[in-house]
Amino acid sequence: MPRPEPRAVAVECDGVRIPVASARLAELSRQVLRAGKVARAMLSITFVTSRAMATLNRRHLGHTGPTDVITFALGQGPDGAVIGDIYICPDVARAQARAHGVGVREELARLVVHGTLHACGWEHPEDESRMTSPMWRRQEQLLERFWMPPSPRV
């Protein structure tokens, strides 16, 4: 009988469709956990509508409108497992992908990495310096390592 995965990651789509296989995104999150030397984890990643994200954003953060990703780092379980819930809005991800000239799959992967890092305790500033913060640099390193195809050799 195989042992259960110590880094359990469940991916759900709540009323939305995403152009990436859920299993691939779950594996990406597990790779981030392994890279961070997180031995045990229980994460849920849920893709939600703009309306649902706006409700979460208002209720829990006091902000108006939908956002790209919200992570609830729920602490550690009795066995030391990192526990967290990550919510991602594909509509916001699509708009961000267009604005930054990247593909929507890449942007969704970036948000999975971002949310996973938050669940593990990483934080970043809320101002313009967030994109030069240690968390952002780590996020981009992990995205390049686990998601991006290798550059073709010339």
Question: Can you tell me about this structure?
Answer:
This protein has 154 residues and is of the alpha/beta class. It has one domain (7-144): Collagenase (Catalytic Domain) (3-Layer(aba) Sandwich). It is 43% helix and 20% strand. It contains five helices and four strands. The protein has helices at residues 22-35, 50-61, 90-100, 104-119, 134-146; strands at 7-14, 41-48, 69-76, 82-88. Strands 1-2-4-3 form a four-stranded mixed sheet. Strand 3 (69-76) and strand 4 (82-88) form a beta hairpin. Helix 1 packs across helix 4 (104-119) and helix 3 (90-100) packs across helix 4. The radius of gyration is 15 Å and the shape is globular. The chain starts with 6 loop residues before the first strand and ends in an 8-residue tail after the last helix. 29% of the residues are buried. The mean pLDDT is 92.
Give the low-pLDDT segments: none
Mean pLDDT: 92
Instruction: Please report the distance between the alpha carbons of the first and last residues.
Output: 47 Å
The chain-level structural class is: alpha/beta
Summarize the helix and strand pattern as letters: EHEHEEHHH
Global Rg: 15 Å
Largest sheet: 4 strands, mixed
Question: With helices defined by DSSP (H or I, 4 residues minimum), what is the helix count?
Answer: 5
User: Judging by the overall fold, what is the CATH architecture?
Assistant: 3-Layer(aba) Sandwich
Record the strand order, biggest sheet. Answer: 1-2-4-3
The total tally of domains equals: 1
- Which percent range fits the helix content? 40-55%
Shape: globular
Quickly name the level 1 CATH class.
Alpha Beta
